[in-house]
Amino acid sequence: MTWREQLALLLGAASPFALAASTDADTRPLPPTLHGPDDRHVARDLVFWSDPAHRSHLFQLAAHRSHSSHSSHSSHSSHYSGSGGTYTPPYVPPPPRPRPVSAPPTPPAYTPAAGNSGDGSANSSPDAAPMSQADIKAIVQRVQIALIVQGYDPGPADGALGPQTQTALRQFQAAHGITTTGYMDKQTLEALGVLK
Amino acid sequence: MRAALPLHTHGRIAGGSGVEILKVLSPEEAAGGCWPAEDVLVQEPAVGGASMLRRATGLPITIDRLRDPAVIQPGDVVRLLEGTSLISVLFRRGSTSNTLFATERCNSLCLMCSQPPRDEDDSWRVAELIRLVTLIDKDEIQLGITGGEPTLLEEGLERILEACAEHLPETTLHILTNGRNFADRTRVGRLARIRPDHTVWAIPLYADVPDLHDEVVAAPGAFEETLQGFYELGRVGARTELRVVLHKLTIPRLPQLASFIYRRLPFVQHVALMGLEPMGFAKGNRETLWIDPVDYIPELESAVFHLSNRSIPVSIYSLPHCILPRNLWPFARQSISAWKRLYPDACEPCAVGDLCAGFFASAGPAWRSRAVHPLTTEELAA
Lengths: 196, 382
Hints:
The complex is a heterodimer of chains A (196) and B (382). By secondary structure, chain A is an all-alpha fold. Chain A has eight helices and no strands. Chain B is built from eleven helices and 17 strands. In chain B, helix 3 (155-167) links the parallel strand 10 and strand 11 (172-176). Chain B has helices spanning 27-32, 124-135, 155-167, 185-191, 210-217, 222-235, 254-264, 281-284, 286-289, 297-309, 377-381, and strands at 8-10, 12-15, 19-25, 40-47, 50-55, 61-64, 77-81, 86-91, 99-101, 142-146, 172-176, 199-204, 239-245, 270-274, 314-317, 341-342, 359-360. Chain B is 25% helix and 21% strand. The chains are: A mainly alpha (196), B alpha/beta (382). Chains A and B meet through helix 6 of A and strand 10, strand 11, strand 13, strand 14 and strand 15 of B.
């Protein structure tokens, strides 16, 4: 499968986000910084991850490839223990809920100026960098590992979002009361513990 | 090693009297007015790297020179004690590990107790906890109550539960108790009726026979009381969870215990089989308790599948994925709370990373299974 096909699956038209955003994404020029000189870089991910906050999440995820950026206090882990006793929670995970009060800091908005001008190092954050095929693959692989760890069968953790992985995603979504799209939307990634 | 964010730090505290329990908020959220201004410490944006906390209304309080500024974040509830520099985080926003510590007293003396009891009157905690409950985020999903034995607070626990019902109507309470006091039907009646749908009573049972259970909890007659406690809770339809700590004494009869649970306690909503936490008494009883988890996989598998095949939800806590066979992975939960979870250096290359349970920060190499190893992507691709 080519990377373009992988990406088509990843961002597939079946995603409600993609459908909702595609019409105006087609007419709106992308921020110039995202047109990388290398065609292998993916600009279309913006359609899916059009919210800059989501996009920075996605990059954090890609960084997991190197296992160098583990959150030291993963505050959204799915279980807990307390100050006394071996303290762990009931079986049924609480339904995932948005927690607006603890939303991640919003990275700079996507304006043409925010990408590569101004104070150099501060703005060379991952937010501004184009996403590569390797990034996407790393994210898919991370999701596959999370599915395997939780007892689902996405097939080999090879970084390709094939039919078996999508089936596993649907099963996971169904079990967690998430719309069963088979795609890696934000809610699913959070429920998987892949996005903190 | 990746360690967790601590729950305490020190700083220069000026003002305040006695014990102050306050909500830390960003200036924007404080301006929102959801919390009474006299309960709020405003965390002012760091100027030159030094963040400062300030109470604007009432008796002024300022805190600066925080030793570890990351410990305190907007949304947290902190406790200050007059005349000291200690700042304790009682509630951490976004954490799934938030608990109310009810009492240090206990009527059992378990061999592996991670929080050895102290027989001191600490009923002052009740007022502090009720104060804390009023400052917890209303959208908190779940809150633990632990000890000690919380039911020893008697009507104090009732008042705490009622405060939770009033201030946190959406929050589920998960209460760790040995259940022995529930053998008394009158106590069940009062406690279990406060908010039955939002309360889970988590009770340990270590064996299917009284002799062994009583030995583990070092309290003769405890088995009968705990079993009766389960029945009394079950009688009124309270939600119960049964917990087993896995160690050298409990492993041999684990398969029989699973069978006993299905026959005698089929109404429990969840069974948690938990790795040993090397804290408190457990450290001194290593000879009695330690068994390498890889050596009890057959008993664990037997118990897990006996219960799971009979539709009793079962989980494995505190054991890392790398020592479990793949067929047990669906049952393994990331159960160790964030602030005491640790991944040793050996885990750095692991493909699973922090999706696994990790290790208790208190667990030195002597408490680590010989089977611990980083999992590779190739292994997972198989």
